[in-house]
Amino acid sequence: MEPRQDPLREIVYLIRKLMQASALYSKALSKKYNVSAPQLATLRVLLHDGAMPPSQIARHIMVNSSTLTGVIDRLEKKGLVCRLRNDPDRRIIRVELTDEGRALAEKAPPPVQVKIIKGMRQLEESEREKIMQSLSKLADMIDAQDLDVETEEEVF
User: Fold this and answer.
1) pLDDT band of 151, cuts 50, 70, 90
2) The CATH number of 27-108 is which of 3.30.70.3270, 1.10.10.10, 3.30.1330.60, 2.30.30.700?
3) Which residues are within 8 A (CB) of 77 and not within 5 positions of it... i.e. 6 or more apart?
4) pLDDT above 90 for 42
5) Which burial class, exposed, middle or buried, applies to 113 when counting CB atoms under 10 A from its CB (0-12, 13-18, 19+)?
6) Which residues, 6+ apart, have CB-to-CB distance to 107 below 8 Å?
7) 67: Cβ contacts below 8 Å, ≥ 6 apart
8) Domain range summary for the chain, segments of one domain joined by +
9) Do 101 and 40 meet the contact criterion of CB atoms below 8 Å apart?
10) Contact between residue 25 and residue 35 where contact means Cβ atoms under 8 Å apart
11) What is the CA angle 74-109-34, rounded to 5?
12) pLDDT of amino acid 91
């Protein structure tokens, strides 16, 4: 029996593996369909739920509104979405798929999250709960709001 690798190294390796899978998926999307993962997620939300305000799209795809503004700008430049203003209140903007955007959203592969969700649904509820608790702890440790890029002491 092979001795078990250092658990901390294994955790870091697995996190990197997940990040790499996401990056490879995004790269393949960009190459084949000329859209990023957030752009595709936006297109798919609009395909399934219809035209909606940017703030609602941001909640659906779990990004902040300022990030989504750039996503919509790029999709609009590509002719995949258009912004519509409501006649009675011109301040209200809704984003809608163009015919080209609809065609792309229908033929593009589902986001990588769909694969994760399908796999998670095959697990027992208790296993999903353990994963959620562990990932929550990791997310709190990383705390993306406070990331510091200064060199940390070497831990391995």
Assistant:
1) very low
2) 1.10.10.10
3) none
4) yes
5) middle
6) none
7) 38, 58
8) 27-108, 110-142
9) no
10) no
11) 30
12) 79
